[in-house]
Design brief:
330 residues, Aminopeptidase, 2 domains, ten-stranded mixed β-sheet, 24% strand
Length: 330
């Protein structure tokens, strides 16, 4: 029997946010799926929209609550990274505050109404307007981390990153971190970027969400996934540290590496030049498409990772000799 589908808006901090509620014919877990926490991450928004439409005709156990765009003001204003009304990154504000700025109130409302009480949470992202990235899934250390790791692995992206609390933590105040604090297994999945809707990235999100449903026992995998790459995907590389390199000086950013390159110690990853076209020495970094390098904030919002537990660089061979799955687009 097809599930019951309700499309409506949800009032979160005075903002009308689109919500798709899909309730199966049998009892089961409640899954919350968020997208558009950053309003210009279009591949993730497109992925959730496409996935929710397809789910309407499938057998489902339990309930899905899907929000295609959470940060509606950023979406309307085409503003990357932040809530335009207060300039704050919504995904650094969770679990939020009921009497804070708009980003803090929106985070609090989303946390209390969508994250708390869920059996699992998937926050679907892409690189923002000026970000190119390697697809990965992030989960948080904590009481629900074993279940979160299972969801992250099921999503099927090439890297799975575990983040621990503490002074070395690269990012905090995220949806998945707030969920982990209350014992809800949650993941952040990233694929796509640069303000583009590329079908390959959209498909990664659709397939990943389908596999999360299967992992939770809410639905079987659709026939297309059974016959395609989702069945035989390689195990992900497990990573244990999330590094954001920071730029000491502003200027013109010129990357020396591409998305998917392995960055070795001693190899220049980029250079920052002054605005008069003069040179300035670079420092090891990695992949980005953003040319503006402001002082202080993370260098071009680039994500860098350190492998742990014997994980191998992408594209290398395992001891058994099999080829690791190449990065997206290569």
């Amino acid at each position: 029997m097809p599930p019951k589908v309700v499309r409506r808006t949800l009032d979160l901090a005075g903002i009308q946010v689109p919500l798709i509620e899909i309730t199966g014919s049998a009892d089961g877990p409640q899954l919350t799926v968020l997208a558009g926490v950053h309003g210009c991450e279009y591949a993730s928004i497109a992925g959730v929209r496409s996935w929710a439409r397809a789910l309407e005709s499938r057998e489902l156990q339990g309930r899905v609550r899907a929000v295609p765009v959470l940060n509606m003001s950023a979406f309307r204003a085409r503003t990357p990274f932040v809530v335009p009304e207060d300039g704050k990154n919504l995904n650094r504000c969770f679990p939020g505050h009921p009497s804070g700025t708009l980003a803090e109130r929106l985070a609090h409302a989303a946390f209390t109404q969508l994250i708390a009480g869920a059996d699992a949470v998937v926050d679907v992202h892409a690189g923002d307007m000026v970000e190119a990235l390697e697809p990965f899934t992030l989960y948080e250390a904590g009481p629900a981390e074993d279940r979160a790791l299972a969801l992250a692995t099921a999503y099927g992206l090439g890297y799975v990153l575990r983040q621990e609390p503490g002074p070395g933590r690269a990012v905090s105040g995220t949806t998945s971190a707030a969920a982990a604090q209350i014992g809800v297994p949650a993941i952040t999945a990233e694929a796509g970027g640069c303000g583009l809707v590329e079908q390959a990235a959209v498909d990664l999100h659709v397939r990943g969400l389908d596999q999360v449903l299967a992992e939770l026992g809410m639905a079987g995998r659709p026939a297309s996934a059974e016959d395609g790459a989702g069945r035989d995907q390689a195990a992900p590389d497990l990573l244990g540290r999330f590094l954001w390199l920071r730029c000491a000086d502003e200027g013109w950013w010129e990357p020396a590496v591409k998305v998917g390159d392995n960055q070795r110690a001693g190899r220049r990853g980029a250079a920052v030049h002054d605005q008069l076209a003069g040179g300035r020495g670079g420092r090891p970094a990695a992949r980005t498409w953003r040319q503006v390098a402001p002082p202080g904030p993370a260098m071009s919002r680039k994500r860098c990772w350190r492998a742990v537990n014997g994980a191998r660089p992408r594209g290398t061979r395992s001891p058994a000799g099999e080829r690791r799955r190449p990065p997206l687009g290569q």
